[in-house]
Design brief:
The protein has 16 helices and 20 strands. It is α+β, with helices and mostly antiparallel strands. It has a seven-stranded mixed β-sheet, sandwiched between helices. Strands 15-14-16-13-17 form a five-stranded mixed β-sheet. The protein has a four-stranded antiparallel β-sheet with strand order 4-5-7-6.
C-alpha cells in the first residue's frame, strides 16, 4: 500500500512539473524566440569587416546584416540587396544594381558608396585573396557599383557573396565614420531582418524585427540569442521551454533530444568538417615530420565510432578535409580503421612502444570528438592527453600558429574546394601551418581557370596530393545537430544551402 501511495505521489509530482514547464513556455511573450548557441557571443561578430571567414559568427551577422548577393533560401548565391548583376564576357567586370529604397536600421539610405566602403574596410578571412584579384571598385551612380578584376577569377562571387567571407555584407559608411569601429560594436547598424536592441557580453543578444526590411518583416518579432557553452544546460533550456532552438546537441544530449516526443532533432546540412591538424609536419625535428607517424594516426581513427559517439552516426567519415557537400570536393574513401597497421607503422618509424605526444586541443565545444580521438590514439601507443580551451582563444592561437603538435580542427565556412584550399592547404593561407610549392602553383592555376571541368581536375589533384602526403587526418563531415522546441512551427534550418542557421525572416512559431 505504501509503495502504491509513493508511486501515486511521484506521478502527481511529474504532472505538476510538466504543468509548470508548460506555464513557463506559455508565458514567453508571443512572437519571441530564443536560440541557445553553443559558444559565448563576441561583439566582434557584430562587425562584418572583422569576420575571419568562420561560420559561427554568421549566426549573428545574417540576422543584423545583409549582402549585395548572399545565400538565400534554395540558392547558394542569390540576389539580396542587389536586384540584378551582370558579368562581362571576359570575366573582368561584375556590375551590381542595388534595389531602390534600401534603408539601414537607423533610417539612412543605402547607396553604392556604402558597398564600396564596406568592401574596402574588410580585413577578415579571404581579404588577401580579394585584394589580390580585385583591381578597383567603381561607383557608377548611387545604385550601381562595378568590380574590376585584374584577371578572370571564377571564384569572385564565392568569396564575395557567401559565408566564405563577410566582405559582401554592407555597413553604413556615414554612421561608422561617426562612431568608429568600437562604437559600431557597441551599437551595430545593418540592413538585415533584425536590428540591435541590447547585448550582455558573452551571454545574450536581443534583437527586434526590422519593419523596413526589404524582403519581408520577420514573423518572429523578438529574437534572443544566448551563449550557452554547456550542452546539458542547452538541453535543460529546451526541455523547459526556455529555448526554442539549441545548437550543437552532441552525444548523450542529442540522444535525449531524440527520445523526447516534444522535441525535434535536426541534422544541419552545411559544409563543416573535422580533422586532425599536424602543425609540426614541416619541422624536421618533430615526430610529426615522419609521414609514417601521420599515417598511423589515420589508421588509428575509428571514424564511424567517433560519428556514433559525437553525432549519433549522422556525420559521415571523411577522406579529405573538403566537405562532400561542396563543389569540386574529391570523392574519396577515408583510411580504414586498422589499429594493427597503425602500430606497425609506428614500429617502422622507430616507436615500437609508441611515444608521448603531449597535449591535444580539440576545437571547442566539440569535446566529445576530442575524447574519442584521444582514446583511439592512446590505444595504438600515441599517448596524448586532452586539453580544453575557450573558443575565442582557440581560434586566436590557431590563426597565430601557436597551437603545436596535433589538434582537432573544424571549419564550416561556405564556398567550394578552392576556398578550403586557400585557407588550409595554400602555404599563405590564414590557417595553414605550411605547404608545398606545387600545391601553391596548382592553387594559382585553378583560380584563373574558367573551364569548370579543367578547374575541377586541378582541385581534385590538390586534394589527392594532401592524401598522398598525409597532410591531415580527416575525421568526418559534421552534421551539426540542432534541437527544436515545441513552439516552433517552421524552423527553416537547411532551407539556405550550405548554411547551418535558419532563414531568420521565415521562421514561424505555432499560432502565427
Amino acid at each position: 500500500m505504501n509503495r502504491r501511495y509513493g508511486i501515486l505521489l511521484l506521478a502527481i509530482a511529474v504532472l505538476m512539473l510538466s504543468w509548470v514547464h508548460d506555464v513557463r513556455a506559455q508565458t514567453k511573450p508571443a512572437g519571441e524566440l530564443v536560440w541557445a548557441l553553443h559558444v559565448s557571443i563576441s561583439p566582434s561578430w557584430f562587425d562584418p569587416g572583422e569576420n575571419g571567414g568562420l561560420i559561427t559568427p554568421f549566426a549573428v551577422l545574417y540576422a543584423m546584416h545583409d549582402g549585395v548577393v548572399r545565400p538565400m533560401p534554395g540558392q547558394k548565391i542569390g540576389n539580396s540587396l542587389a536586384e540584378s548583376w551582370t558579368e562581362s564576357p571576359d570575366g573582368l567586370v561584375y556590375e551590381f544594381k542595388l534595389r531602390q529604397g534600401l534603408r539601414f536600421h537607423n533610417g539612412d539610405p543605402c547607396t553604392a558608396e556604402d558597398v564600396q566602403f564596406s568592401f574596402e574596410r574588410y580585413k577578415g578571412g579571404g581579404a588577401t585573396e580579394l585584394r589580390t584579384n580585385v583591381q578597383r571598385l567603381e561607383v557608377v551612380d548611387p545604385l550601381t557599383v562595378r568590380f574590376h578584376l585584374k584577371e578572370p577569377w571564377p571564384d569572385f562571387l564565392t568569396f564575395y557573396g557567401t559565408s566564405a567571407t563577410a566582405a559582401g555584407l554592407i555597413v553604413p559608411k556615414k554612421y561608422l565614420e561617426q562612431v568608429g569601429d568600437d562604437g559600431f560594436k557597441k551599437h551595430p547598424i545593418g540592413l538585415g531582418p533584425y536590428k540591435f536592441v541590447s547585448f550582455k557580453p558573452g551571454i545574450e543578444l536581443v534583437l527586434e524585427a526590422y519593419e523596413g526590411y526589404w524582403q519581408k518583416v520577420p514573423n518572429v518579432k523578438r529574437l534572443i540569442i544566448k551563449g550557452v557553452p554547456e550542452g546539458t544546460t542547452r538541453l535543460a533550456m529546451l526541455k523547459k521551454g526556455e529555448a526554442d532552438l539549441a545548437a550543437a546537441m552532441q552525444g548523450a544530449v542529442a540522444e535525449e533530444v531524440k527520445r523526447d516526443a516534444n522535441l525535434t532533432l535536426v541534422d544541419t546540412r552545411h559544409p563543416s568538417m573535422f580533422w586532425i591538424e599536424f602543425a609540426e609536419q614541416w619541422d624536421p625535428k618533430s615526430v610529426w615530420h615522419d609521414k609514417r607517424v601521420r599515417l598511423a594516426v589515420n589508421y588509428a581513427l575509428n571514424r564511424q565510432a567517433v560519428s556514433e559517439a559525437a553525432c549519433l552516426s549522422y556525420c559521415p567519415p571523411a577522406g579529405v578535409i573538403v566537405p562532400r557537400l561542396m563543389d569540386f570536393a574529391l570523392p574519396t574513401e577515408p583510411f580504414p580503421y586498422d589499429p594493427q597497421k597503425a602500430k606497425q607503422l609506428l614500429a617502422e618509424a622507430g616507436y615500437p612502444n609508441g611515444f608521448d605526444a603531449g597535449e591535444l586541443v580539440p576545437i571547442p565545444p566539440f569535446f566529445e570528438v576530442g575524447e574519442a580521438v584521444v582514446n583511439d590514439l592512446n590505444a595504438v601507443g600515441i599517448r596524448v592527453r586532452m586539453r580544453t580551451m575557450e573558443r575565442a582563444a582557440f581560434y586566436t592561437a590557431w590563426r597565430e600558429k601557436k597551437l603545436r603538435g596535433i589538434f582537432v580542427a573544424a571549419d564550416g565556412s561556405s564556398g567550394n574546394a578552392a576556398t578550403r584550399v586557400e585557407s588550409f592547404m595554400y602555404s599563405k593561407g590564414t590557417y595553414a601551418y605550411g605547404g608545398y610549392p606545387d600545391i601553391d602553383e596548382l592553387f594559382q592555376q585553378q583560380r584563373q581557370e574558367r573551364d569548370r571541368a579543367k578547374r575541377e581536375a586541378i582541385l581534385h589533384h590538390i586534394q589527392q596530393l594532401t592524401v598522398e602526403r598525409v597532410m591531415f587526418a580527416p575525421i568526418m563531415d559534421l552534421r551539426g545537430l540542432t534541437g527544436v522546441g515545441p513552439r516552433v512551427a517552421e524552423h527553416t534550418i537547411n532551407s539556405i544551402p550550405l548554411h547551418p542557421g535558419p532563414a531568420f525572416q521565415n521562421i514561424r512559431l505555432k499560432g502565427q
